[in-house]
Amino acid sequence: MEIKKQIDEPTLNPQSTPYGIIGGEAKVRALVTRFYDLMDEDPDFYGIRKLHPESLDGSREKLFMFLTGWLGGPPVYTDQFGHPRLRARHLSFAIGASERDQWMSCMTRAMADVEIEHSLRDRLIASFANTADWMRNKEP
């Protein structure tokens, strides 16, 4: 009976989450670092860069914490700040199609640059795209 119970009750394998597949904390940190470095350096992302404070340190840390939990790792963001309330937290920023597209392009490049596996990258792009579009709060 004990063996059957173990088979019928799957155990959570952290390596089966996107967080684990990506490579855990180090890879999520590398992704966030690359994302904000691109935003800071590439004029194509000026529209979203200007929405951030001069120092990106706080933004980097919050995105790292959020993505860690969102990808299936430890819930460090929610443990510290509660529910993300993404749209509510971003309402003070004018986000239209241009800002959405810049954010998506920046994140897509960052994922490629840190070599996130193609099939997982495609799944993440689809999820990010839904969220990025939902964040829009101004026309075009």
Largest sheet: none
Helix- and strand-based class? mainly alpha
Write down how many β-strands occur, each being a DSSP E stretch of 2 or more residues: 0
Separation of termini? Answer: 61 Å
CATH class: Mainly Alpha
Number of domains: 1
- Radius of gyration over alpha carbons? 17 Å
What number is the mean pLDDT? 91
- CATH homologous superfamily? Globins
Structural description of this entry:
With 140 residues, this protein is mostly helical. The chain has a single domain (21-134), classed as Globin-like (Orthogonal Bundle). The protein is 66% helix and 0% strand. The chain has nine helices and no strands. Helix 3 (24-41) packs across helix 5 (57-70) and helix 8 runs antiparallel to helix 9. The chain is globular. It starts with a helix and ends in a 6-residue tail after the last helix. The model is unreliable at 1-11 (pLDDT under 50).
Primary descriptors:
globular, Globin-like, 9 helices, mainly alpha, 140 residues
Write the layout of secondary structure elements.
Blueprint: H1 2-8, H2 18-22, H3 24-41, H4 46-49, H5 57-70, H6 76-81, H7 86-90, H8 97-113, H9 118-134
